[in-house]
Structures are given as C-alpha cells and as structure tokens.
Amino acid sequence: MLRDSYHIGGNSMIKLYEEFNDLYKLHRAAVELKHGIYSRGWRLFEPSKFIYSFFAFNSFYSINWRESQIQEELINWESQDMSEPKKIREMVRYVFNYYVKNGLNKTDEKDAKRKLGEKFISKINEYLGAELKDKVAILNNIVEDNRIEKKEKEKFIGRIRELVDESSLSKKIWDDILYFIYLVRNNVFHGSKDITQMSGIKQIERFKIYTAILLATNEMLFDVIEDNFQWVSEDRNRVRELQKKRISLDETVYSKYKIEVPDGILFYPCCGDDTSEPIKLFIDTISEFHFVDISHIPRLPILECDTNWRNRQILSQHQIELIRMIPSTIIKSIRMYRSESRVVDAKVLEQLEELGIKSTGDRIRAITTRKEEWGYAPKEGRKIQIYRHKQDGLFKFMELDKIAVFFLRGDSPGEGGSGQKWFQPKIFDLIINKLVDGGLIVTDGSGLDYETSDYVPWRPLWERKGESWNAILKKPIDFKYKNRKFTCIGECGYRYGTVYLWKVEQL
Are residues 226 and 271 both part of a single domain? Predict the structure, then answer.
C-alpha cells in the first residue's frame, strides 16, 4: 500500500507521479516515431524505431521495480555486478508475477499464463499491424554471426513458435525472447551492418517484429505500474481514447445489420472533414468513396500504414488526435495521385438550369480533386478508391452514377452550412434515380426543404432531426415513393439528430 502522502498530494508522490509521466512519454515517443530517409523517395527507416523502442526499454529495465514499490520512489539498479540481461529478467519477473498472481484469483496457473499470452500477443499484433503467427517464417532469415550464434537464433524462433502456437506466456519464454532482442540491439550498435544492409526488406520485417515485442512489453509494464502505484496519466488516458476511435471491422453496417450493400459508390456532399464515420461504416463493402466540400479538400483519417511522414506535417498534433486511425490490419498500403483541377462542365450547369434547380454554390466554378488508392488487407487484391473534391456538391452529384450509398448529415441552412436543400422534390427524385436498387440513404435529416417538409412522402427521413442523442426514440416508419420501398434498417450514429440507415428497393 502507498503512504497517505499520495492521497493528500505529498511531495514525494507528486515527484514519483511526474517521473512516471516522463517515463511514459519515452514509450509514446518510441510508438509515434516517424524517421524517414531518402532513397529514391522518402520512406520510414525501421531501425530508428527499433533503437528508440530499445532506448525506452533500457530506461525501464534499469529500474528496480520491486524495491521502487516498497520505497515509493524510483530505485535504479546500482550494483556493478548486475548485468543487463539480469536487469531485463528482473523486470520481466515483476510484470509476470503481477499478471499471474492476479490471474490466479479466478483460475489456475496454466490458465493465467494462457490469458497473459493472449494479452501479450494481442499487443504485439497491434504494434506490428499484422498477426505475429503469420510472420514467424520471416525469422528464419536471421543471419548468424560472431554475436548471434545459431543456438541463440534457434532458441528465439522456438520461443516465438511456443508463444503463438500455445498462446501461453511463461517467464522463461519472455526472458529468452527479450534476451535475443538485446543481442540484436548489440549487433545494431556494435556489429558490422551498414545502413544499406539494415534497410534490406527481410531485415526491416524482422526489425518490425522486434520493435512490436519491445513496445508490447513496455506497455504491459505501465499497466502494472498504473495498478501497483495507483498512477493515472492524462497522456495514457488520451491514448486509450484514441485507440477506442480506431476503425474496426466490427463496427461496419454489414457487421451490425447483416445487410448486403450493392455495388456502387458512396457519395457524401457538404461533408466538411466528416470522413471517418462513413469509411468506418462501409470500408468492407464500398470500394469507391466520394467526399465533397465547397470550401476545402476534406481531410481523411490517418492510416497507420502511411509512412509518408512529410505529408503528415500539414496536420497539427491536435488535428491528428481528432482524426480516427485506420490500422494496417485493415488498410495495408496507400497510393496517392496528383491533384487535378478543372472548371465545371457547362453541360452540368445546363442540366440544372433545365430542371429548374438552383445550386447554392454555382458561384464557384473551379474543381480540385485528389485521389488515393488503398490496399484492403483482409482481401487480397481488393482496392478502395478515395476521391476528395473541393467543389459544389450538387455539381459533383450530377456527374456521378450508380450511387450505392447517399450519405448526408451535419449540414445546415445557416452560417457554416451549405444551405443546399438536398431533399427538395426535384433533387430527391434525382437521388433515387441515381441510387442502385437496394442502395442506402444514410442521413440525420439534413438538407430538408422546409417549404415542402410537412407533406412530402419522404418526411420520415427527418422526423427525428434535432432530438436529443439520448432520447428514447421509435424507429421512423417505412414509406413508399415512386415505385420504391424505403425501409429504415436502424440507427448508425448521431449528428443533428439520430442518423438512420434507409434501404431503397424497387417494388
């Protein structure tokens, strides 16, 4: 138990708290490091990430955690007889004993080790951006030399196989894995490999595995510190909140409602920077997204696989924190195309004029489009096209066909909104004509036409608009219009009211 000085804000515990914060910043620096080198284009230099991760790891295992907990202050190993491998073993023992001891409250030791192994593997996979079990074969390419002998290589590979095959983590397995990584660290600093050799594809893949193991170990240490010292870090809580926002395939429309989404595009006009949510909902079913805003090129969520660190500099740290991340287990690659600029096609203006439709943005004729192509990790060969347009939404809409999802939320007629009445009769007819059979309308009711909103058949689209997010609501009623059935599938978020998902089918 900690002394009462902690609970009343004693100076000793405040100092310890601050030291924990500084240590955790070391860990986060290693996690977030993006160090690029130029070799026929900028790319991430993985050895730097490994070095930073080991530097943080070295700082952590240099502390006698058991004694620090007793003395309620950080106690470093000072004995000259304490070797680096022994310090590592002592830290592993401290973390391992915590997990197994707590796991024994409800299970036996074998099951506790299994749960610990599952947790360790999960964290490794998170930092690796892939499944460790799929990467074991890469370790066979480890090159033996005068610092890493064959027996050490074989023991390391064997321990990794034990970990992934049995999903169980013993102290011995953990010790041996980290000891080998310690040998790799020595080789990086004192070995004979130059930058070219360290940049080899096979070597880079191994560095990724070593780094993920170190980061997972460091993170689990802080889990223990948080509980044993009753330490809470604002930075750690922020990281947890960001991790909750990471896009997951468990949150898609298909996963939630098990409905088929037809082939076609997702079109989202007047979107601002609201791109994460539609991608999250349809990343497993839609292969072409069009985001449009009249004032700027919409921002996209950060991709974990995007190693173009120079491109990231256009975003402030605050903006990065606000934008959801897509892990490498979902999007594994990115290709960016040159921006294109052109003027609005005169035929589009003529079409709108003939239909008697007034666009709120026809004063702006220039169009800028940026395209990206993402590689979808769960399905080999699948590509997702992302188009971002700085353009009037109605103009872009007129140029598109085969819309599978019409997405509209968070727009308003007032200042800051587009004022475009997307659900006025003439435009609504265009929407359903461009919507493929079985296509979806996702909306909170933005874009309604107040002059006709009380009597048109599609008014259920906005009947819940403006109601509190925590209100107990009845699902809007289904309706028919122009030989089509509009079925409310359910809710998928909240903006200016509950966002509902409507399926539109030919009768």
Answer: no
